[in-house]
Amino acid sequence: MARLSPNEGVFRSGIDRTPELVSLGRISSPYGVKGWFKLVSHTQPRENILAYRLFTGVVNGVSRMLEMDEAKVHGKGLVAHLVGFDTPEDVRLMTGMELMIPLSDLPELSSEDYYWHQLQGLKVVNVAGQFLGRIDSLMETGANDVMIVKPCEGGLDKHQRLIPWLPDHVVLKVDIENKIVFVDWEADYLI
User: Fold this and answer.
1) 25 and 100 fall within a common domain
2) Is the pTM of this model over 0.90?
3) Domain enclosing residue 96, as ranges
4) What number of other Cβ atoms are within 10 A of residue 20's Cβ?
5) Distance (Å) of CA 136 to CA 73, 147, 156, 160, 167
6) Cα separation, 104 vs 21, whole angstroms
7) What are the pLDDT digits (tens) for 4-55?
C-alpha cells in the first residue's frame, strides 16, 4: 500500500486559466563558468527530473518560462543548464528558483500511490478517533518517509508529531477524497 512520490509544494497561479504547478526541483548554485548550475531534485528517484525540459521558474512570486537544454548526474548530485543562461552571473540571479511543471504533466499513479503534495494539509486521525493535526510536509529519512504533523485548530493539542509513513503498520488508510489519513499512532508517542 501507498508508495510516496515526493514533490514539494504546489503553486496555484493567480490566473484561473493557468494550471496548478508542482515543484520538481530548484536551482541551487552556479556550477562552472558556462551557466551550469547545481540542481536540487524533489523527485524520487532524483534523476526523474531529467526527463522534463520545460519549466515555469518561480522565485519571490515572479514566474518565467524556462527550457533546460542539458542536464546530467554529476557525482552524488545533478547539474543542468538553461537556454539563455550562459554565465555564473546569470545563474546567481536564479539561485533558489523553483522549477515547476503543471500537475497535469505528472505521470498517473496507481490508486495505492500518492504524490507528497496530495497529502499536505490532510487531517491525521488515530484509531482512537483523536484528531492529531494536519500533515504539514513529509521528509525522507533513508529508512522510511516521515509525516510532519502540525497542530491546528480543532486538533487534540499543540504538539507537532513526526509519524513514520509505514503502510499497513502505522498508516492504515488514506482517504484523499475526504482529506483524512488514518494512523495507528497514540497521541503521546514521540512528543
Assistant:
1) yes
2) no
3) 4-11+19-105
4) 13
5) 30, 8, 16, 10, 19
6) 9
7) 444 444 433 333 345 688 889 999 999 999 999 999 998 888 899 999 999 9
